[in-house]
Amino acid sequence: MTASKRNRALTPTELDRFGAELDALRARTVAQIGRVDADYIRRVVAVVRYTGLLGRVLMMVGAIGGAFVAWLFWPGVILGTALLALSKILENMEVGHNVMHGQYDWMRDPHLDGKTYEWDIVATGDNWRKTHNYMHHTWTNVRGMDDDIGYGLLRLFPEQRWRPFYLLQPFIAVVFALLFEWGVAIQELRVGRWFTGKTKHRAMWRKFVPVGRKMGKQMLKDYVLFPALAGPFFLPVLLGNVVANVIRNLWTYTVIFCGHFTADAEVFPKESVRNESRGHWYLRQLRGSANLSGGKWMDLMTGNLSHQIEHHFYPDLPARRYAAMAVEVREICGRYGQHYDTGSLPRQFGQVMWRIVRHAWPSRPRARRPLVRAEAVEAQG
């Protein structure tokens, strides 16, 4: 049975109560936020800093020391690359993503200011705050309003119009995963509009300048300066940096796609958000999101996006709170007859891969139950 059949359409009164209960959970959690959350994010920042530093040192030791003591080469380079990848994953997901949502603005720490934080990938923080924080989180899974639906490259829902180009998407998806940070970097540029002449060259150049500057800075740091410190052993350190970035890209892609494109995830037409109530907004977020099971390590490594449902409900609350909130969120969803999509990483990613392959071919939209009971809407009219 599909989620759409398991989900019960709610009356406007039920939607109001549903939204009120989730708002109340938010209020109770906000009242608890304090020093423990500040200590947590500062510990993670320290882990990012020291694992990154140790990773780079080990790569240097392995590359340079390996010329004199052969057995040092591979252990040093491999362990150094793994630690640098870990540092980049934590910085990207638990620090950068969550800080830029404003989750720690209450601390008044300029290094953790959501409006100015700049993360360690080629995408600019300003563009991410627009495409992700505003467009995606406001219009989650609304066709024509949420650019994260396939990122302009992939057809993941039968409601998206099919074109022959999508036959290539199983291959495009692999390349996109490997270069995910670059895809995120150019998302706001809307390159497709430039190719079709809808965006003028001068306007595109103005938009590209800050993005190009950030790309250049990242490439200079990872692919020139740090490898250059190894002197004639430049290439092993360069390769380690490339691999660390690719590992981070693959992991980020996997987590994000598992949170949005599982078998039960739904998309919505533009008209569905007209005069949208708070309860209706929560319900749409729920129907377009999915969680990952796996415990505390999974939570840490995903920046707590293993609780994507809770993140879509409460994007500006410290993400470390999501696991505790999830217990009550799931109970509330159950009482209102709503499917709470969660599963292991292999299960959820398997569903994502099936979507990518299946919808590369022509497919028809499935019948969806409405979010609001039709008879209740008619009665109100």
UniProtKB/TrEMBL annotation:
Report the GO molecular function annotations. oxidoreductase activity, acting on paired donors, with oxidation of a pair of donors resulting in the reduction of molecular oxygen to two molecules of water
Organism the protein comes from: Lysobacter capsici AZ78
Q: Where is the Fatty acid desaturase domain?
A: 73-342
The entry's keywords: Membrane, Transmembrane, Transmembrane helix
Q: Name one GO cellular component term.
A: membrane
Q: Which PANTHER family match?
A: ACYL-COA DELTA-9-DESATURASE, DESB (PTHR19353:SF84), FATTY ACID DESATURASE 2 (PTHR19353)
Protein name according to UniProt: LINOLEOYL-CoA DESATURASE (DELTA(6)-DESATURASE)
**GO-annotated biological processes:** lipid metabolic process
Q: Which residues cross the membrane?
A: 53-74, 165-185, 223-244
Mind telling me which InterPro entries this protein's record contains? FA_desaturase_dom, Fatty_acid_desaturase
